[in-house]
Amino acid sequence: MKNANAALRGVSRRVRATLLVVVAAFAMSFAASSFAADATLKIGTATSPQIDALKVAVKEARAQGLDVKLIEFTDWNTPNAALANKDIDVNYFQHVPFLENAKKQGGYDFVAIAPGTIMKIGLYSKKVKRFDELKDGASVAIANDPVNGGRGLLLLQRAGLIKLKPGADYRATTLDIVENPKHLKIVQLEASQLARSLDDVDLAQGYPSFIKLAGTADPNSALLFDGVENKLFAIQWVVRPDSVNDPRIRKFIAIYQQSPAVRAALDQAFGTLYAVAW
């Protein structure tokens, strides 16, 4: 009986040891899988032809061992909400004035860490070929957000259609209009929807990328473009403060900025309607 009990204790010790090994292996496997999931770099962007160049950069990053997931949003609000909620690690769709306004309105704590492309905006029409053809009371669509709307008003001023208060900048609103000789009716729409308004208004502020995406007009056909020399309007790579030095993000940005294939994709998408800001 004593020998039997000793044998059972020996078996029990061996079983316990085996179980410990199994549990430890499972824990290590779980930790490894969790780390692998956390290692995926999630990049958020808004729907636009910019995504073609981003996809090229993603492909090159994966070839270099960086696991990347590109997430496309259909509006200009969700990418910042997703970044704040840690659903993504970085977003790429907004310039500094838009970012500063989003931080003010949404209470976000974000940092712009690197510039991307600068996109032209223009004034487009399917009704007239020249500004002097606009009739009294013509309808003009501009962006409804505080930053891009101001940029549209500045462009209308450059076209000689309105006059703003002295010193007005990209933060201008319709309240800053001091002269409107043609009594233009200003219609404010979400920036991403302006391209689809061309059949309904006489003139519209437009973004060549969205014009191309919507297929509503030739992106090069604007009656007037603003320049690409103002780096204030360069699209930024935006992160939370704790990700400023994330090596994955820095590596991806370097790939995007240095890749000839990415530049080729940008050239194909935008031609002369963009410039790089880095």
UniProtKB/TrEMBL annotation:
Pfam families with a match to the protein in the record: Lipoprotein_9 (PF03180)
Family: Belongs to the nlpA lipoprotein family.
Signal peptide (UniProt feature, chain positions): 1-36
Name listed for the protein in its UniProt record: Lipoprotein
UniProt KW Lipoprotein keyword: yes
Organism of provenance: Caballeronia telluris
UniProt entry keywords in alphabetical sequence: Lipoprotein, Membrane, Palmitate, Signal
Entry keyword annotation includes Lipoprotein: yes
Domain of life: Bacteria
Membrane topology reported for the UniProt record: Lipid-anchor
GO CC entries: membrane
Protein location: Membrane
